[in-house]
């Protein structure tokens, strides 16, 4: 499968800092993947995401070592506006990306700045708005929206650029549980339609069941890179202060009490197997 993102020996230190935000990171992300990046605050998650659309090192200055390629383009030498059409970045605070007084105008802002013709702009705006189901708020000012609606509007504004990769930096950080669930289900739906998703998040409970792969960052380095079942059942997660989703904690508890359960990604899977009466293996 084609690699859309490739980081080779990537290290970065912000200007004026003594510490490296990223250290010798090597990774490849393929087309169609849903990759969850987790780690403690300060582990380098946001910095890594900024490398994917050229904000690091083109906007955020510092010592940049190694190479990052996005869809074959070197991020050090390719303009950010061009990279953003491949890797669209959604920030944790959607208000920072909603800059006009109407949602529809925000969604149109990116395509307009690409110099597209009117017909193409209208087509992209309609597609993006319909993709995230926000037709009912398209004419509202962003400041009147709920946090979940703002996040959906921000995602629509990025989708209007038609990127191959949707990059999200803690998209549920400021959302209530219901809004967070809606946004995650939206992102998962987009992934099922072929959009590659790379998401940094600390609220793992809702996201873990959607991810195909989990990358754990610790002090700027990749500590683990594997399937969710492998990562969240590892003792390493707990050792660095990350709480695994509850389904994995339950499976570990069951094992400690003498009941072996298969590695599952969600409570739904567990309940389905329990209903079938085929999963319990007492040791």
From TrEMBL:
Keyword set for this entry?
Answer: ATP-binding, Cell membrane, Membrane, Nucleotide-binding, Translocase, Transport
The cross-references to InterPro entries, in alphabetical order and at most eight, read: AAA+_ATPase, ABC_transporter-like_ATP-bd, ABC_transporter-like_CS, ABC_transpr_CbiO/EcfA_su, ECF_ABC_transporter_ATP-bd, P-loop_NTPase, Sigma_54_int_dom_ATP-bd_1
What sequence ranges are listed for the domain ABC transporter? 5-244
Origin organism lineage: Archaea, Candidatus Marsarchaeota, Candidatus Marsarchaeota group 2
| Role description | Probably part of an ABC transporter complex. Responsible for energy coupling to the transport system.
Q: Which PANTHER family match?
A: ENERGY-COUPLING FACTOR TRANSPORTER ATP-BINDING PROTEIN ECFA1 (PTHR43553:SF24), HEAVY METAL TRANSPORTER (PTHR43553)
Specify the protein name: ABC transporter domain-containing protein
Q: Which family does it belong to?
A: Belongs to the ABC transporter superfamily.
Molecular function via GO: ATP binding; ATP hydrolysis activity; ATPase-coupled transmembrane transporter activity
């Amino acid at each position: 499968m084609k690699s859309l993102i490739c980081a080779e020996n990537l290290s970065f230190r912000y200007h004026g800092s003594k510490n490296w935000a990223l250290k010798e990171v090597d990774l490849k992300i393929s087309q169609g993947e849903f990759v969850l990046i987790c780690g403690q605050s300060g582990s380098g998650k946001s910095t890594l995401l900024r490398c994917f659309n050229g904000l690091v090192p083109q906007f955020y200055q510092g010592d940049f070592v190694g190479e990052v390629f996005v869809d074959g383009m070197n991020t050090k030498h390719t303009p950010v506006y061009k990279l953003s059409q491949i890797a669209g970045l959604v920030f944790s605070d959607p208000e920072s990306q909603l800059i006009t007084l109407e949602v529809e105008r925000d969604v149109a802002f990116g395509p307009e700045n690409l110099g597209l013709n009117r017909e193409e702009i209208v087509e992209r705006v309609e597609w993006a708005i319909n993709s995230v189901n926000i037709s009912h708020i398209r004419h509202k000012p962003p400041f009147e929206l709920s946090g979940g609606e703002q996040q959906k509007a921000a995602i629509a504004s990025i989708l209007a650029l038609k990127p191959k990769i949707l990059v999200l930096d803690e998209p549920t950080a400021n959302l209530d549980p219901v809004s967070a669930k809606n946004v995650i289900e939206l992102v998962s739906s987009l992934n099922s339609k072929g959009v590659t998703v790379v998401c940094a998040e600390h609220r793992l409970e809702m996201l873990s069941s959607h991810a195909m792969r989990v990358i754990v960052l610790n002090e700027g380095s990749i500590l683990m890179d594997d399937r969710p079942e492998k990562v969240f059942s590892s003792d390493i997660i707990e050792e660095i202060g990350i709480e695994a989703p509850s389904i994995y904690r339950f499976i570990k508890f069951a094992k400690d009490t003498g009941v072996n359960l298969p590695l599952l990604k969600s409570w739904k899977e567990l309940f389905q197997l329990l209903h079938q009466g085929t999963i319990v293996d007492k040791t």
